[in-house]
Write a structure and sequence with these properties.
Number of strands: 6
Distance between the termini: 51 Å
Number of helices: 2
Radius of gyration: 19 Å
Bound molecules: zinc ion
Largest sheet: 3 strands, mixed
Helix content: 10-25%
Length: about 120
């Protein structure tokens, strides 16, 4: 399971970051950017995250996945185009094979959101 290993790495990254925070506030949401060309199934990732965060510091945290489209650039036509994922990886105009990917391979944590703690007024 590709997504299971990926989720492990994701949780470890968030944990390392969280452990370095002075206050270690509860995490509400983890925002993730996933490119269409990473072969990651967002639903599987979501499921793996829910399972693997149980009884950890991330228990109850929400995983928000933002997908970025696959965008390639054709040097012959000097244009960007969107290949049809899983169907066709070539320029729709001149049929040149896709060789320059501009977007769609991202897999990164965008940001982490805390649970807003009530601030005590002195
Ligand atoms: Zn072209």
């Amino acid at each position: 399971m590709h997504e299971t290993d990926m989720t492990k790495a994701l949780i470890m990254t968030v944990q390392a970051w969280w452990a370095s925070q002075p206050e270690r506030p509860p995490v509400a949401r983890v925002y993730l950017t996933v490119g269409q060309f990473t072969c990651v199934e967002p639903a599987s990732l979501q499921f793996a995250f829910d399972v693997q965060t149980q009884d950890t510091f991330l228990d109850g945290a929400e995983l928000v996945i933002q997908e970025t489209p696959l965008i390639a650039f054709c040097h012959a036509c000097q244009t960007e185009y969107r290949p049809q994922v899983g169907l066709r990886y070539a320029c729709p105009t001149c049929q040149a094979p896709m060789d320059d990917i501009r977007s769609g391979r991202e897999l990164k944590i965008d940001r982490v959101e805390y649970v807003a703690l009530p601030t005590s007024v002195p």
